[in-house]
């Protein structure tokens, strides 16, 4: 009997020979085992490759973490998969000061062009960003008075405990009246590298921008959607000569949110080369007083937030905001409208940002009419709502006296956050009334019942 190859035996079985001989069975088993061995080798090879790649990135992450995380707590490689509870998380709110400076090779390398507080509501999974203008004139620890953006430089100059960023953190905390648990400080080079690494960001430019005084030459961009590389994004975020510092703060928030979305996308997180480049940028250009387990936890909280639900506010000198322009020693500065070093209105916004943010988004126009019989009651009510995002367009007297306060809603319920705030503030229920052509969203008739409340 001639010997059959394994292939011939398999062919006979396929053609109806259902009972192969014992040698044939042995040969088939051998063939199947051989196939399994190859599959196993391929899987093991891929696993080894993955572990080597992950190990290289993990080791790099470990070494770079020692540069980035000034708060200490850099773990072994397996510790990079752990999370730690954030300071303030148990109380329901975590505040992180985000700062950007020029870094080496720029004028005023330690002055923070960007200062904003990222607040995470750990109970509702809401996130808010509040930009603090760099020209706000404040007391800076024991180092005198100056613009708030100089706190980092002063801290470095005088070797403040924890460094310049720690002094900036303490200064912003005092001005806003809220605890700042952490800071993150990045320079311009790191900012550009991260955006280039993720392939650029998409930004909706709200209006045409033309700046012939930009440090590196004329900068201009048209209104509409733009895909920006790192250099373009930096110019968009820094330009201010032909607009305002407040517009710039809003643009910085735009870029930050767009970068967050790109970094957290699967195309970035699952790309070892991109992650390697991001780690390099982080290690050389970013510092934080977080521990790495805390940073992982913060990353996990922020990535869940819908961009459309983020609250974005800027402290500015607009009529319905809390700052005013001034001049000290020939330098342009911003001061609180409430009075020199009176941060009460600023602190009201910072402390209640998750309530005030939606109000500013609705931007209701309100008139307040006095029907209490006491002089100045309408103005008192209006003053108590300053800085909340409302436009108080008219303060005057009602046609007749009233014993109780009334809130007329002319929007048919289109601005529910404002309705709720006014009802809670004045302790009365609103009633809907058709718009009368005056352009106001709400009319408040201040009755006698408010006399003991203001």
What does this structure look like?
The protein has 454 residues and is α/β, with parallel strands linked by helices. It folds into three domains: 6-62, no CATH class; 81-352, LCP protein (Aminopeptidase), CATH 3.40.630.190; 363-450, 2-Layer Sandwich (Alpha-Beta Plaits). It is built from 14 helices and 19 strands. The protein has helices at 6-14, 22-68, 151-157, 164-176, 188-197, 230-238, 245-263, 266-269, 272-285, 292-302, 344-351, 353-362, 377-383, 416-426; strands spanning 93-101, 112-121, 126-131, 137-139, 145-147, 182-187, 201-205, 209-211, 219-221, 224-228, 286-288, 311-314, 323-328, 331-336, 365-370, 391-397, 406-409, 430-432, 442-446. Strands 11-6-1-2-3-12 form a six-stranded mixed sheet, with helices on both faces. The chain has a five-stranded mixed sheet with strand order 16-15-19-17-18, with helices on one face. Helix 14 (416-426) links the parallel strand 17 and strand 18. Helix 3 (151-157) crosses helix 4, helix 5 packs across helix 6 (230-238) and helix 6 (230-238) runs antiparallel to helix 7 (245-263). The protein is globular, with a radius of gyration of 31 Å.
CATH superfamily of the largest domain: LCP protein
Query: Mean of the pLDDT scores?
Result: 82
N→C terminal distance: 111 Å
Q: Strand order of the main beta sheet, please?
A: 11-6-1-2-3-12
What is the general shape?
A: globular
Unreliable stretches (pLDDT < 50, length at least 5) are 44-59, 74-80
The CATH topology label of the largest domain is: Aminopeptidase
What characterizes the major β-sheet?
6 strands, mixed
In terms of DSSP E residues, the strand content is: 15-25%
CATH class of the largest domain: Alpha Beta
- Into which percent range does the helicity of residues fall? 25-40%
The CATH architecture of the largest domain can be named as 3-Layer(aba) Sandwich
Our count of helices gives 14
- Structural class by secondary-structure content: alpha/beta
Number of separate domains: 3
The count of β-strands is 19
Cα-based radius of gyration, to the nearest Å: 31 Å
């Amino acid at each position: 009997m001639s010997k059959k190859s394994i292939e011939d035996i398999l062919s006979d079985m396929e053609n109806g020979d259902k009972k192969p001989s014992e040698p044939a069975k042995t040969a088939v088993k051998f063939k199947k085992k051989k196939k399994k061995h190859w599959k196993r080798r391929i899987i093991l090879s891929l696993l080894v490759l993955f572990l080597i790649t992950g190990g290289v990135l993990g080791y790099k992450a470990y070494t770079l973490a020692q540069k980035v995380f000034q708060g200490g707590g850099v773990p072994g490689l397996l510790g990079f998969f752990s999370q730690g509870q954030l300071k303030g998380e148990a109380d329901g709110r975590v505040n992180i000061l985000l700062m950007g400076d020029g870094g080496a090779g720029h004028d005023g390398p330690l002055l923070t062009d960007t200062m904003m507080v990222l607040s995470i509501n750990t109970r509702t999974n809401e996130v808010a960003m509040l930009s603090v203008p760099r020209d706000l004139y404040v007391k800076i620890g024991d180092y005198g008075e100056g613009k708030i953006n100089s706190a980092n430089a002063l801290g470095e100059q005088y070797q403040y405990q924890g460094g310049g960023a720690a002094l900036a953190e303490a200064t912003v905390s005092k001005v806003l009246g809220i605890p700042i648990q952490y800071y993150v400080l990045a320079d311009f080079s790191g900012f550009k590298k991260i955006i280039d690494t993720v392939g650029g960001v998409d930004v909706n430019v709200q209006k045409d921008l033309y700046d012939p005084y930009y440090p590196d030459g004329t900068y201009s961009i048209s209104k509409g959607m733009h895909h920006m590389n790192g250099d373009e994004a930096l110019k968009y975020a820094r330009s201010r000569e032909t607009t305002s510092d407040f517009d710039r703060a809003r643009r910085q928030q735009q870029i930050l949110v767009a970068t967050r979305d790109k970094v957290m996308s699967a195309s970035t997180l699952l790309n070892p080369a991109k992650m390697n480049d991001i780690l390099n940028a982080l290690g050389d250009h970013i510092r934080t007083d977080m521990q790495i387990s805390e940073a992982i936890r913060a990353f996990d909280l922020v990535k869940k937030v819908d961009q459309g639900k983020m609250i974005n506010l800027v402290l500015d000198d607009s009529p319905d905001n809390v700052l005013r322009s001034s001049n000290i020693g020939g330098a342009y500065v911003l001061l609180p409208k409430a009075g020199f070093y009176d941060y009460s209105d600023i602190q009201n916004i910072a402390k209640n940002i998750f309530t005030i943010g939606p109000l500013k988004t609705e931007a209701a126009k309100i008139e307040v009419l006095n029907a209490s019989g006491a002089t100045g009651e309408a103005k008192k009510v209006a003053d108590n709502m300053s800085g909340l995002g409302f436009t108080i367009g008219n303060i005057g007297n009602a046609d007749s006296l009233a014993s109780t306060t009334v809130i007329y809603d002319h929007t048919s319920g289109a601005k529910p956050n404002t309705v709720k705030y006014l009802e809670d503030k004045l302790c009365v229920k609103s009633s809907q009334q058709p718009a009368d052509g005056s352009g106001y969203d709400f009319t408040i008739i201040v009755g006698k019942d408010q006399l003991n409340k203001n």
